[in-house]
Amino acid sequence: MLPVVGADLSKRLAPDELWELAAPLLPSFATRPQGGGTAPCDERAVFTAMVYALTSGCAWRHLPPTFGTSPATAQRRFTVRTEAGLWSRLHRAVLDELEARGEVDWTSAIVDAASVRAKRGIADRAEPGRSRQEGHKLHALSDAQGIALAVAVSGANMHEERARTASPSSAWPPP
User: Fold this and answer.
1) Distance CA 4, CA 168 (A)
2) What would the pLDDT profile of 41-55 be if each residue is shown by its tens digit?
3) Cα distance between residue 144 and residue 141, in whole Å
4) By CB distance 3.0 to 4.6 Å, which of 50, 68, 98, 125 could disulfide with 4?
5) DSSP 3-state of 138
6) In this predicted model, what pLDDT tens digit does every residue of 31-43 receive, in sequence order?
7) 49 burial class (0-12, 13-18, 19+ CB within 10 angstroms)?
8) What is the side-by-side order of every strand in the sheet holding 135-143?
9) CA torsion 71→73→76→82, rounded to 10°?
10) What SS3 class is residue 22?
11) DSSP label at 136?
């Protein structure tokens, strides 16, 4: 069943192939015997709303009502699914599917990074012997076609080679 949002937008944000990979990875919500708890809702509608918020940069509170789920429900389910590790498992499932189709080019891999500056006032002046680069650095490892194989976040003053070993909780390098 498609969410209330238009079929074209739903198919673009969460095509059937992506939904088939994501659906089995979603944590289940069991109703409590005494009642109350998580209300049942269309899981694909919630997933589509989450993909919309992630890809558009839309704030949860501004989520259009046409998705058929409330912004609070979408944000709460996003938090639960993130804590359950959904996004890294879904990324791995997509990579496995692309690998099975022969669409991942392992002949070369490219590492790149982009720095995100910290807000002013946190460290307006560099201390002696300390790097001036404050903030975060986003690292990405992609194949020759630009397919993201792994991502990691580190301090802005960390070199890509050191970031690989400094963040044990990230998927860097991919398993």
Assistant:
1) 40
2) 888 989 999 999 998
3) 10
4) 68
5) strand
6) 667 766 666 788 8
7) buried
8) 109-117, 135-143, 148-155
9) -90
10) helix
11) E
